[in-house]
TrEMBL record:
Gene expressing this chain: rlmN
Binding site for [4Fe-4S] cluster: 136, 140, 143
Name of the protein this chain belongs to: Dual-specificity RNA methyltransferase RlmN
EC annotation from Swiss-Prot or TrEMBL: 2.1.1.192
A single GO BP: tRNA methylation
InterPro entries named in the record: Aldolase_TIM (IPR013785), Methyltransferase_A (IPR040072), RNA_MTrfase_RlmN (IPR027492), rRNA_lsu_MTrfase_RlmN/Cfr (IPR004383), rSAM (IPR007197), rSAM_sf (IPR058240)
Length: 381
């Protein structure tokens, strides 16, 4: 770990008492503006101006807007805010990964709820791993977050705020470094929580992030990862249109029942059918299957063959994830030799099957390791 900073933001730790305007779509902002004394013919221009300042320039105060009437900006600042959630902690890994612990409102209680957001820089892209819930209900047995009980779903503004905070801290706003490419190019909804158990808020947040007049992330570069909540999977394709990843981890129901217990409700047969019918597959995209490599649990050559058979009708990419141990878990990571053999078999069978390089291990930011710092500290005391 390179450094650890605490209380690095001046923002109100208990979040905003008024609503954050960045949690609204363009059409909702246009509707909201009808509450103010603005000629109807100016509504669309004012909406665009606000959208521009919020999502291209990243302003945090209405008073920073220079091309709108002062009276209107004063009124807006009474009703809405542009402030972000607070950053309680920032940790930087030796490999460049950054993890932020964010404080969220806790219905007026003094201790804020907290979530984690992780930035993973790579040579040709920068990926932000975003959370959708505080805690999780699904108890996947290899996942550290799964040991933290669900506190609540995040709101749209809290999901969007994670991207805005990351852009603030990376100085990644339009015009800030005109010669450089954007630092955040990809979003993965793979942080804390099951995004499809918070479908409406996640959908709205992703549509705001991909709106081409503002943050403009390409839908191909935004991935929603689910543990397999079958009834919502088609809606991800038709209503959001982003890429889909499935936390698979085994091609056998009896093993998956233990690793991903939601499998008992939506077993592999239903999950695979939902994947085969995923609407975006018609546009030559692939579904990514996440497969954590656990020694003697799911890593045999037989397991690899079963996996190839299971996915034979789905355009797939299979990400092999070497298991990241965390305190108190019962699993071991498969040997690298075995992971390579597993990958080779699937590659030879025509699948794209990369082995994911572990990132941010020294700050517990790697896949499956996210868990609120405060919970850990509370347990230690
Ligand atoms: S893997 Fe995802 S769905 Fe499963 S417990 Fe962890 S956060 Fe929840």
């Amino acid at each position: 770990m390179l450094d650890l900073q605490t209380n690095t933001s001046n923002n109100d730790n208990t979040l905003q008492k008024v609503r954050a305007l960045y949690g609204y779509s363009q059409s909702e902002i246009s509707e909201n503006l009808k509450d103010y004394d603005i000629p109807l013919k100016q509504n669309s221009m004012r909406t665009k101006q606000l959208w521009n300042w919020i999502f291209l320039k990243g302003i945090k105060e209405f008073s920073d807007i220079r091309n709108m009437p002062k009276d209107l900006l004063n009124e807006l600042s009474n009703d809405y805010t542009l402030k972000r959630n607070s950053v309680s902690t920032e940790q930087r890994s030796a490999d460049g990964t950054i993890k932020w612990l964010l404080g969220l409102s806790n219905n007026g209680l003094s201790t804020p709820n907290e979530i984690e957001t992780v930035f993973i820089p790579e040579e040709k892209r920068g990926t932000l791993c975003v959370s959708s819930q505080i805690g999780c209900t699904l108890n996947c047995s290899f996942c550290h977050t799964g040991t933290q009980k669900l506190i609540r779903n995040l709101t749209t503004e809290e999901i969007v705020s994670q991207l805005l905070i990351a852009k603030d801290r990376l100085n990644d706003w339009h015009g800030s470094e005109p010669d450089k490419l954007r630092k955040i190019t990809n979003i993965v909804m793979m942080g804390m929580g099951e995004p499809l158990y918070n479908f409406e808020a996640v959908k709205k947040a992703l549509l705001i992030m991909t709106d081409c007049d503002g943050l403009a992330l390409s839908k191909r570069r935004v991935t929603l990862s689910t543990s397999g909540i079958v009834p919502f999977m088609e809606r991800v394709g038709t209503e959001i249109g982003v890429s889909l990843a499935v936390s698979l981890h085994s091609a056998k129901d009896d093993v998956r029942d233990i690793l991903v217990p939601i499998n008992k409700k939506y077993p592999l047969k239903e999950l695979i059918k939902a994947c085969e019918n995923y609407p975006k597959l018609k546009n030559s995209s692939k579904i990514t299957f996440e497969y954590v490599m656990l020694k003697d649990i799911n890593d045999s050559i037989e397991d690899a063959k079963d996996l190839a058979k299971l996915l034979r009708n789905i355009p797939s990419k299979i990400n092999l994830i070497p298991f990241n141990p965390w305190p108190g878990n019962n699993y071991q990571c498969s040997d690298m030799e075995q992971i390579k053999k597993f990958s080779e078999l699937l590659n030879n069978d025509g699948f794209s099957c990369p082995i994911r390089k572990p990132r941010g291990q020294d700050i517990m930011a790697a896949c499956g390791q996210l868990k609120s710092e405060t919970v850990r500290l509370r347990k230690r005391n």
